[in-house]
Amino acid sequence: MSNAIITSVSVYTLNDSSSKVVALAAVTIADCLVLTGLRVVKGNKGMFVSMPQRKLSKPDKNGNEYADIFFPVTHEFREQLNNAILDEYDKKVDEEKNGRSFRRR
């Protein structure tokens, strides 16, 4: 069981149909830590949340060119984080479809 409390989630949808990244997200943990740079991605098996990454100077031993900057340590918290972000994404998309976006301009 995860003890971390997600106190807020912000999702910013993107309107680039050529990209698999459909939104960016920021999450506040326990009103103490803000995680930014999370991405909502449309994958072959559905939507998922991708952690912020940095480009490595050379591929690692597995051939990866990028590495996550931060990541959930437990499966439970990864699930909690993914669900919170994807729920907020769904809510934002629904608001935008129905013309109820409260985004400041």
Question: Can you describe this structure?
Answer:
It is a single chain. This protein has 105 residues and is of the alpha+beta class. A hairpin with a 3-residue loop joins strand 2 (21-29) and strand 3. The termini are far apart. The protein has one helix spanning 75-97, and strands at residues 6-13, 21-29, 33-43, 46-50, 53-55, 66-68. The longest helix has 23 residues, at 75-97. The protein is globular. It has 1 helix and 6 strands, in the order E-E-E-E-E-E-H. The strands form 2 sheets. A 4-stranded antiparallel sheet has the order 1-2-3-4, with helices on one face. The protein has a two-stranded antiparallel sheet with strand order 5-6.
Strand order of the largest sheet: 1-2-3-4
- What is the residue-mean pLDDT, rounded to a whole number? 90
Query: Residue ranges: pLDDT <50 for 5 or more in a row?
Result: none
In angstroms, what separates the terminal alpha carbons? 40 Å
* Biggest sheet descriptor: 4 strands, antiparallel
Helix content, binned percent:
10-25%
State the order of secondary-structure elements, H for helix, E for strand.
Answer: EEEEEEH
Number of helices in the DSSP assignment: 1
The counted number of beta strands is: 6
